[in-house]
Amino acid sequence: MLDVAVLHESPWPHGEWDDLAARAAQAAIGETPYAEWGAMPATIEIAVRLTSDFEVHTLNRQYRDKDKPTNVLSFPMIQRDLLESVTANSDDGEVLLGDIVLAHGVCETEAIEREVSLADHATHLIVHGVLHLLGYDHMGDAEAEAMEAMEQAAMVRLGLHDPYPVRED
Question: How many CB atoms lie within 10 A of CB 65?
Fold first, then answer.
């Protein structure tokens, strides 16, 4: 079972963030080899924090040595090589997969630039963040293409926009 807890802080507007985050996380996991986790008795927990640019800036500086805000940060709690056995080795049937943090101002600006709603862009960023929690990355070209394909498939599953459309200049 998947349990997504959302902490909604100012300046994020009121909305259906709990449902949105749960659907995004489920769609992301559904595009990976861990899709069966949704039917397992163990509870897979993900925390999503919707907060300010200032807070994300502070976290980005503290954990990544980058002195600026970013759209999304992911903090995995399990090493990728241990994910295969994570549900079998849980002492209490609960597994904390990790935390995802979104910066309001950066997300809002990007949503406007992409001509999508803030909720739809946040959905994409939660999908992206969940894939990071599962050990996926975009450092090399092949990794980036694989991760983008999973994100695109998850967004299709949700009936939302393609986050990586081919643009003709």
Answer: 7
The answer to whether residues 31 and 54 touch, using CB atoms and an 8 Å cutoff, is: no
In sequence order, which residues have a C-beta less than 8 Å from that of residue 80 and are 6 or more positions away?
A: 134, 135
Tokens of 147: 């991760």
Identify residue 3 by its one-letter amino acid code.
Answer: D
Per the CB < 8 A criterion, the answer to whether 95 and 78 are in contact is: yes
Give the integer Cα–Cα distance in Å for 156 and 3.
Answer: 22
How deeply is 91 buried, as exposed, middle or buried, from its count of CB atoms within 10 A (0-12, 13-18, 19+)? exposed
121, 111 in Cβ contact below 8 A? yes
What's the whole-model pTM score? 0.92
What is the per-residue pLDDT across 17-39, written as a single tens digit (0 to 9) for each?
999 999 999 999 999 998 887 77
